Amino acid sequence: MHDLPAAGALPAATLSDAMDRFGAVEGIRPLWRGAALSGPAFTVWTRPGDNKGLHAAFETIRRGEILVVNGGGDTTRAVIGELIVQKAKALQVGGIVLDAAARDVAELAELGVPVFARAVTPAGPWKNGPYRVGEPIAVGGVPVHPGDWVVGDDDGVTVVPRARITETVAAAERLIAGEAERRAANQALVPRD
After folding, report:
1. Are 51 and 79 contacting, i.e. CB atoms less than 8 angstroms apart?
2. Which residues are CB-neighbours of 84 under 8 A, at least 6 positions away?
3. DSSP for residue 32
4. Which of 172, 35, 59, 21 is nearest to 117 (CA)?
5. What percent of the chain lies above the pLDDT cut of 90?
6. DSSP H helical ranges for 122-161
7. How many angstroms separate the Cα of 66 from the Cα of each of 52, 63, 98, 187?
8. H or E segment at 142?
9. How far apart are CA 179 and CA 166, in angstroms?
10. What is the C-alpha to C-alpha distance for residues 109 and 103, in angstroms, rounded to an integer?
11. 3-state DSSP call for residue 138?
């Protein structure tokens, strides 16, 4: 496994730019300002509105991994809430990305596990399955394989394929250096009378 930069070290937007604007997940946002995550993907594919697969994921997910869930984009049922995130915190999961809905937002923010979701609803989940754990999925129009690098911040989520992590980090760092030069040039501008 690659040594991944910490959450907040490289912006999700810059990483997408470094991959020719690919990898940016559509429509999935942080549930509170300042939430940030960075780590390898642990994937779950579940029936819309059902969270049985998320409970199964906690039997094998490892510290620092990001739980990435394809819930079919369903926004009618929350597949996570306070109790699941308490479990994630105890297991030191690096964060949660849902192509689905969540609930208990105030409690989730207090727990501090970064959660990114398509929507928020008070309606609870089904718990019947079926589900798949550890298989390739898609979230917000982006493919995600187990072990791909997932980064989230105030702008949203970007997924970097595992095979492209090293080159993407290098490209992102070059972009950041170029942006710093442009910022300095912008600050040196003098208004015209």
Report:
1. yes
2. 51, 54, 55
3. S
4. 35
5. 87
6. none
7. 18, 9, 10, 38
8. strand 142-144
9. 20
10. 11
11. strand
**145 exposed, middle or buried (CB, 10 Å; 0-12, 13-18, 19+)?**
middle
- Distance, in Å, from the CA atom of 14 to the CA atom of 176, rounded to the nearest integer, reads 8
For residues 109 and 32, the answer to whether their CB atoms sit within 8 Å is yes
Mean pLDDT of 155-175: 96
Length of the chain: 193
Q: Categorize the per-residue pLDDT at 64 as very low, low, confident or very high, splitting at 50, 70 and 90.
A: very high
Query: Hey, what are 147's tokens?
Result: 């072990």
For residues 150 and 157, the answer to whether their CB atoms sit within 8 Å is yes
What is the distance between the alpha carbons of residues 153 and 91, in angstroms, rounded to a whole number?
Answer: 21
Q: What is the pLDDT of residue 188?
A: 79
- The two most distant CA atoms of the chain are separated, in Å, by 69
Confidence of residue 193 (pLDDT cuts 50, 70, 90): confident
Q: Which of 169, 163, 167 lies closest to 145 in space, CA to CA?
A: 163
Q: Distance of CA 17 to CAs 8, 157, 181, Å?
A: 16, 13, 17
Average pLDDT over residues 131-154: 98
Per-residue pLDDT band for 1 (boundaries 50, 70, 90) equals very low
The amino acid that residue 111 corresponds to is L
Alpha-carbon span 152 to 98, nearest angstrom:
12
This prediction has a pTM of 0.93
